[in-house]
Write the structure tokens for this entry.
Amino acid sequence: MPRDIPLSGHLPDRPSVPIAFSVPVDPLGFAPPGPMYLGERNRLVSLDFIDEDHLLFSFREPALLHRDAKGGYTFARQIRAMVLALPSGAVESEALWTLHDRSRYLWMLKDGHFLLRDKNNLGLGDSSLNVKPFLQFPGPLLWIEMDPTEQYMVTDSREPVATAQGQGQDSSPTSASADAPADGVNHRVPDMVVRILHRDTGKVMLVSRVHSLIHLPINAEGYVENLRGRGEEWILKMNFFTGGSRNLGNVESACMPAVDFVAPQVILASACNTDGGRKLVALDTSGRRLWVHSIAPEAIWPVIVPSQNGLRLVRETLIVDHAVNAYQPFTDEDVKGQLVRIFNVADGSVAFEGRAIPALDDGGNVAISPSGRRVAVLCAGAIQIFELPPPPPLPPAAGQTLSH
């Protein structure tokens, strides 16, 4: 059983690894957003590695609101996107996208392509920033996530049943709808639809109506759910796409733990301590615990970004000057900055610590390369690039195939 190693909530004065090189962002037209956005959880920036030597940098371009035909205002924001060559920072491709909400809009794929979300549309883009239509949903697409191998994709969309009365049910994202009840009355049927799809084709595997946005941690074999045990015990249960299930282990938590696959066979559970802090528990799909860290309560609103090879993960948090709870909320004046930590997935050792400036509560300002050896951090008017040593390999048991 690994021992619990506490980690502080202090911001480092300087990064733990020297800057290898940096790319100034002022010449690219980037203007840092003000502190007024803290707490809104808007995605204002997306920084992503296309490969080891190219970055996709996109950001909100300030613009005036537009009036619609009725004299009201319509919300549309302009996103400037650029492909930057490293280390020079030369712009190789550039595009301007019009998007219609403030949530996350871009997901990088392993083959140099990316998914671009807008309204009920999901586009597929390439390294030249050409975007082609990929999937269209019956209602606004609110969120997507993928398994570490990118074979499967989970989507959440808002699709009111009333719009589909009298139509047949079809689980395809291009024409999905839902039947009305026999009496023609919607008995509080949820408006949210969660789907699991094949990422390359869009073919639907599972579809269900739910009452709220669903975070569903999946790998290529199935998905994990939290089951309440006794007291503060939570049971992590693996449900297989081929049928059957298996308990992976227990986690003690004062709240429902957040669970993510950070590698095909490695799960990170983020549990709540009684002091308001977090406990990170990494375990493989055989149920073995790899490492445990306690995180200070001053570190809030984590954003996790795994490397594509599953060997490292970025965890960034806002650092505030007091523990936050229902009795002690926080304002932008309480935010001291944003802490960036990079963990080796194999043993939980910290490979990097630094700061992101400005602090962005929804992330997007840190990227890790496919190999996990390069890190890009948006900091103080530049994209700072750090070179890290090779990450340690995962323990052999973490790579074994589950039996069930």
